[in-house]
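Re: the 430-residue chain
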Amino acid sequence: MSQTGSAGVVRVIGQEADRAARLLHRAREARLAGERTAVAPRAEIDASWNRVMRSGIDPGQSPESELLRAEEIEHRRHSTVLGEVMPVLRAGLATIADAAQQIMVVTDAEGRVLWRQGNSAVMHRAHDICLEEGAAWAEAATGTNAIGTALAARAPIQVHSAEHFIRALHHWTCAAAPVRDPRDGRLVGIVDISGPATTFHPATLALVDSVARLAEAEIRTRHLGAIERLRSVAAPILCRLEGRALAVDSHGWLAAVTGMPPVDRLPLPKSLRPGRVWLPSLGMCRVEPLPGGWLVQVADGAAEGAPRRVVLDLSRPRALAVHLVGPLGTSTQRLSPRHAELLYALAVHREGRTASELAQDIFGDGTRTVTVRAEVSRLRRHLAEVLAHRPYRFGDGVEVEVVHPEHPADLLPRSKAPVVTGARRGAAPC
């Protein structure tokens, strides 16, 4: 059945979905026309419609998108941890989807379909709406839909009939849930069940979310098993070493350590090779391969490979980065907007800043020192060789360059930090 609450919010809670779809259709058409209506969609659907309307999606457009090539799909399948848990997803959802005249769809973190499986007749119908391998189903491409909206909201959601923004999808129902890597909370993809609107069932979302959690548990179990195998190999080696050393897997997760406090994860460059390597958080190291990971020995006192130049690249708001240049090459760290603000403030004030002064630079409030100290501490985990403290500053002898965007107004455009807004007005050039 459908239910309209006291505030006129339409919720589909049972089998009478047709009436709910009609009410939602009227609410949607009124929204598109800029009119007020007595009924409204659920808050999460309403928020999605607002995002989609701002992005300029045409409600009459086709959901078609340019498909990824087969080799690119295979590359993405092998590059994501989701490939390791597909047996769990197939066992938990694919058979049920087939029996319910629906299909299971699994996407990567960009909303690109990597796998689909289920009822053969529905697979054929899905071709008409481009719900096929390689297609784009993020909100920015296909409007409000369970896959794209779950990606945008980072939460499970069910989207039924006229809740879809694009009219071509009104004959479909879908339920999707995000899958996160339990090691760091990073979203790795979406698992979804989709089918004709007549196959709607209110319990579908709970089923999809439960299977997504099972997949996360499987990722955790596999990771712990791999770390344990690496530890069994590394522990006898570390016992014979002097100084600081640690064993990490290929993604930097710690398996064993000696001579230094343990860390959860060691940031590693994307292309790591055996030999002498400068790591931002440790300095000069010697790296050797182990089965399933790396042995990292810290070369205490060897500073000849430390970075001598820092390039703070703020030229692209969506790709903020800092490049550390030293005798052994260049390493790059991606930056959050907050960390970019902090490094920019330190680049402007090369003499250094106290916690209170940085709080004033970033928040316009010199009392927010606890937040500043915590954020700088996180930065120094990756940039310890170039950042000093008491006061906070770039180290002596480190050359600092800031790469600005082409137009001053595009400098960290979402930032409200006084040090940034002043620079946009030309008050604090660097």
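Confidence is low (pLDDT under 50) at residues 1-7.
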